Amino acid sequence: MAISYKLQRRKVVHQILKERGDAAVITGIGNAVHDVASFNDDPKNMYLAGVMGGASMVAFGIALAQPKRRVLVITGDGELLAGVGSLATIGVEQPKNMSIIVIDNQAYGATGNQHTHTGSGVDLVGIAAASGFKKTALITTQAELESELPKIHSEPGPYFAVVKVTNKSSPRIDAPRDGTYVARRFRAAVTGESM
Amino acid sequence: MGNKKSKNWHWSQDVHALFKKLGIEQVAYVPDGGLAKLINRCQADASIRSVVLTTEEEGVAQMAGAWLGGQKGVLLTQSGGVGNCINMLSMMQECRIPLLALVSMRGEWGECFPWQVPMGQSTIPALEAAKVIVHHVDQAEKVPETVHAAARLAFDSYRAVAVVISQRISGSGSRG
């Protein structure tokens, strides 16, 4: 029987974003888009509303190009599992300015809460640690979240955390849907260049 | 650019020099024999971050990130890896993000290994279905100019472009 968790995904994401500073934030497909957009529509947000499994590697490319900026991935367990090999690549490459935060509801929330492997014992924190992530954490309580917050934003990375949350859904708050618009706005905000 | 008539000339030396001229700072790949010399040149170059991938779609995502962060990159892949990239390429199309990919062919000219043929024959149709512009090249001396043209189309016109390098050039797979 799966354990039930009490943290609420939206409150967790908002608490992380409150202290983001000038970080770039990349979301994975699904609820992570709504969690981030519902805090604020920052131009340094890149919402990936497609390309399941791609969030970590998009963020990695940004992290290499923007070595002085923190790059945060906020994604779900289903999205991360779809590109789990990326953890090996990022573990080998060791980008210091990158943190991956997996909001783990143990379910595919966008399609009707079907189970993901994380509810059946697959340990993403263990995979990240074994892949060479410098710092990893499993967060299940508010106290653990608060003690990890400074590390999420400034610990030399690559940093990886799984936050176990309840699978109750939050209201849908859409991000801008046009990828071309979001991508150009993001690029201008993080590079200061116009095209 | 090297002397194309020299016996030791290989297209990879001119393409590597072109990468430098274009300011390519990230190269990502799953290794392939047809690209091995170019990969070795990039790995030996401290001004290019060479990243080994577990699967080619990671590289499509990384290239999107490189551009979003203000750098230029190149994805190097064998034709077999193109099939892994299809869904990730939707980001290039939806976001109009440049992609420059070099694809070395198998399952094509003189292939002696049957398992390479299905994906090799699907490579160009799959790229085109994903709205990637294809430049096919089958003479070694034309590879550098083709990569140069593809780079302009990609980075200056914000398009996804693949230079498909014929097996006729690499000679891979000729003995199975």
Question: Quick recap of the structure?
Answer:
The complex is a heterodimer of chains A (195) and B (176). Chain A has 195 residues and is of the alpha/beta class.
What would your notes on this structure say?
The complex is a heterodimer of chains A (195) and B (176). With 195 residues, chain A is α/β, with parallel strands linked by helices. Chain A has a single domain (9-190), classed as Rossmann fold, CATH 3.40.50.970. Chain A has eight helices and eight strands. In chain A, the strands form two sheets. In chain A, strands 2-1-3-4-8-7 form a six-stranded parallel beta sheet, sandwiched between helices. In chain A, strands 5-6 form a two-stranded antiparallel sheet. The longest helix of chain A is centred in the C-terminal third of the chain and has 13 residues, at 142-154. Chain A starts with 8 loop residues before the first helix and ends with a helix. The mean pLDDT of chain A is 95. By secondary structure, chain B is of the alpha/beta class. Chain B has a single domain (11-169), classed as Thiamin diphosphate (ThDP)-binding fold, Pyr/PP domains (Rossmann fold, 3-Layer(aba) Sandwich), CATH 3.40.50. Helices cover 43% and strands 19% of the residues of chain B. Chain B contains eight helices and six strands. Chain B has helices at residues 11-22, 36-43, 56-68, 79-82, 89-95, 117-129, 143-157, 167-170, and strands spanning 24-29, 49-52, 72-78, 99-104, 133-137, 160-165. In chain B, strand 5 (133-137), helix 7 (143-157) and strand 6 form a beta-alpha-beta unit. In chain B, helix 1 crosses helix 2 (36-43). The longest helix of chain B is centred in the last third of the chain and has 15 residues, at 143-157. The radius of gyration of chain B is 15 Å and the shape is globular. The N and C termini of chain B lie far apart (34 Å). The model of chain B has no long low-confidence stretch (mean pLDDT 95). The interface between A and B is large, with 38 and 33 residues.
